[in-house]
């Protein structure tokens, strides 16, 4: 099994490293014709505006949209989630081009800027039921988006209360585009719709491989590939990297 990883900017190397631990090859994708060599794709976190400009420069958007429309599995993390959304708000002046396909509204910097980045334990009952392991997942949110609305065919895999403390801005400016979400309400941070998976956080920055394993099973189910080479869930958890971010507890 070979999984494409969009390698324009951001944490593509981290995704490839996790895939390697699971016995799967990650293929760097930078040009449209390279998509023909893979049957699934991960769009990593990074700076979404920069990634969009590079994708436009390489004329990737038509090929990426066709890839999604063909029903091939695609997982977007953080900036990748923004790319997959049908609508994104809170963008810079002029906005950015999207791939679309995921029936949701995403706020680009819902949790604030870089200094509002944080970690928290996410309840993930569907992931735990399918992949085993603990009932929560350590979510790493870095300038993270939030999912404000989802369509009827979108399955919510994780949500959290809107954080509010001295380190986290509970109410990023939505301009006049959308009604804001108040502290105490919940915001969606992971969804699945058919062949599309989206997470507002960065699973590739933890040693817990369950989200990657979950995506590989999506690839199996949609494409009929074999997953016999996938390693045990949670392998090398003791080597989890140290990430010095505030901890949000609720």
From TrEMBL:
The active site is at residues 78, 202, 204. Gene3D superfamilies: 3.40.50.880. L-glutamine binds at residues 46-48, 108, 142-143. GO terms for cellular component: cytosol; glutaminase complex. It catalyses: L-glutamine + H2O = L-glutamate + NH4(+). The keyword Transmembrane helix does not apply. Its EC number is 3.5.1.2. GO terms for molecular function: glutaminase activity; lyase activity. The keyword Lipoprotein does not apply. It is an enzyme of class 3 (hydrolase). One of its GO terms (biological process) is pyridoxine metabolic process. InterPro entries: Class_I_gatase-like (IPR029062), PdxT/SNO (IPR002161), PdxT/SNO_CS (IPR021196). Keywords: Glutamine amidotransferase, Hydrolase, Lyase. HAMAP family: PdxT. PANTHER family: PYRIDOXAL 5'-PHOSPHATE SYNTHASE SUBUNIT SNO (PTHR31559), PYRIDOXAL 5'-PHOSPHATE SYNTHASE SUBUNIT SNO1-RELATED (PTHR31559:SF0). Belongs to the glutaminase PdxT/SNO family. This is glutaminase. It comes from Actinidia chinensis var. chinensis (Chinese soft-hair kiwi). The lineage of its organism: Eukaryota, Viridiplantae, Streptophyta, Embryophyta, Tracheophyta.
